[in-house]
Amino acid sequence: MSRQLATVTRIKRIEAIPGADVIAKAVMTTNSWQVVVKKSDLNEGELAVYFEVDSFIPRDNNGETDSRFEFLAKSSAKKMGEVDGYRLRSVKLRNTLSQGLLLPVSLFPEITDPKEGDDVTDILGILLYEPPLPPMQNSMPRTALRTFPRFIEKTDQIRVQSIKPEEWTELRTHHYEVTVKMDGSSGSFFYNKGEFGLCSRNCQLIDLSGTGIFGKICRWFYNLFNRHHKKTLGFNRSVYSDMAAKYDVEQKLRDYCVQQGRNLALQGEICGEGIQSNREKIPNREQQFFVFDVFDIDTQKYISGEERRSLAAQFDMLHVPVIAEDYCIDGNLAAEQIVPHLLEFADGPGLYNDCREGLVFKSLSDPNVHFKVISNKYLLKYGL
């Protein structure tokens, strides 16, 4: 269940907002999001393009400013890396929650023969907004990067509002593990065929402190460069290296995998001082790593929640808080009631914060079925 950020949808209905003459609330047929729109822009039954919350829309298109999105400059301008653009967030307008952006499909001639449900993320060049990486520790050298390993699945879940209404017929039959979604920076640590590695969400990081062959090769090149050029090459350790050292991840993972004859990747959230403004309220200026997945590289599947929790305990590592080990969606709920019910369920306290980011649901029977429910209270509290 991958996430699509831009979708051709159809306007199901336009609802009036009390006291508002120019704007109204639009509800779509292909998802459960709601968006505040100009009354004059869209009509019921028309096709439109929906841009999901957390979308990053590049400002330029083929070297020129894309005038279709210029109206976002005042409220949503953001820079991601070296790219200028617009980040879509949750907002309240006239006391009405608005999440994402909805525009007439006629504005996008590059979408040829649009059909309801079409994923147009790539056609329109829409990106998932990625917050800046956690700051490097000034007392440690700079980190080199290479592409994210292809043998590990990246961490991501579809937002519950993006699930198509008809999909709930099957999804409501599953039993789920429910865990707290923590607000930090995701990281992965893997052992694969003798190599230990650590990764941010999108890149593998070269850890010069590693004891494996890859770390030794990196240090050899590092020292060779220094001797030849008589200056220091700017490699640095990062917060990911710090977490690996803090929890002795390499030794624990290497010993276990060698003993069991397996290749695994631990995936989790790094939270605390200097990361996402420490919205998780991790105390004592600390940074902590919370396991939320373990990926079996050999089978290319995630291991069960029960085995994951056992492994985290065996490694003496933190695990994201578990709300339920076997949760079923209330069978008495009508299909249109499921998303509001789950959004209400998402509200509640976190580990240290009185308002958690949300919940993650993972099927006990099918590792490919998983989704996240982000608390609207949390989004509005922190302007996300």
Q: Your description of this structure?
A:
The structure is a single chain. The protein is an alpha+beta fold. It folds into two domains: 6-128, OB fold (Dihydrolipoamide Acetyltransferase, E2P) (Beta Barrel), CATH 2.40.50; 145-381, 2-Layer Sandwich (D-amino Acid Aminotransferase, Chain A, domain 1). Helices cover 19% and strands 33% of the residues. The chain contains eight helices and 26 strands. The chain has helices at 73-76, 168-171, 213-229, 239-246, 249-260, 305-314, 335-346, 376-381, and strands spanning 6-16, 23-28, 34-38, 47-51, 55-58, 60-61, 64-65, 77-80, 83-87, 90-93, 96-99, 101-104, 127-128, 145-147, 158-159, 175-181, 185-192, 195-199, 203-205, 264-272, 287-296, 301-302, 318-319, 322-328, 358-363, 370-374. Strands 14, 17, 18, 19, 20, 21, 22 and 23 form an eight-stranded mixed sheet that branches. The protein is globular. Residues 136-142 and 229-236 have low confidence and may be disordered.
Main attributes?
single chain, 384 residues, alpha+beta, OB fold (Dihydrolipoamide Acetyltransferase, E2P), D-amino Acid Aminotransferase, Chain A, domain 1, 2 domains, 8-stranded mixed beta sheet, 5-stranded antiparallel beta sheet, 8 helices, globular
Q: Which fold name fills CATH's third level, the topology of the largest domain?
A: D-amino Acid Aminotransferase, Chain A, domain 1
Query: CATH superfamily assignment of the largest domain?
Result: DNA ligase/mRNA capping enzyme
**CATH class descriptor of the largest domain:** Alpha Beta
Strand coverage percent: 25-35%
Number of domains: 2
The chain-level mean pLDDT equals 89
The gyration radius over C-alpha positions equals 23 Å
Could you say which overall geometry the principal axes of the C-alpha atoms support?
globular
> First CA to last CA: what distance?
23 Å
Helix content class: 10-25%
Which class of secondary structure composition applies to the elements? alpha+beta
Taking pLDDT < 50 over at least 5 consecutive residues as the criterion, the unreliable ranges are: 136-142, 229-236
Tally of individual helices: 8
Biggest sheet record: 8 strands, mixed
The CATH architecture of the largest domain:
2-Layer Sandwich
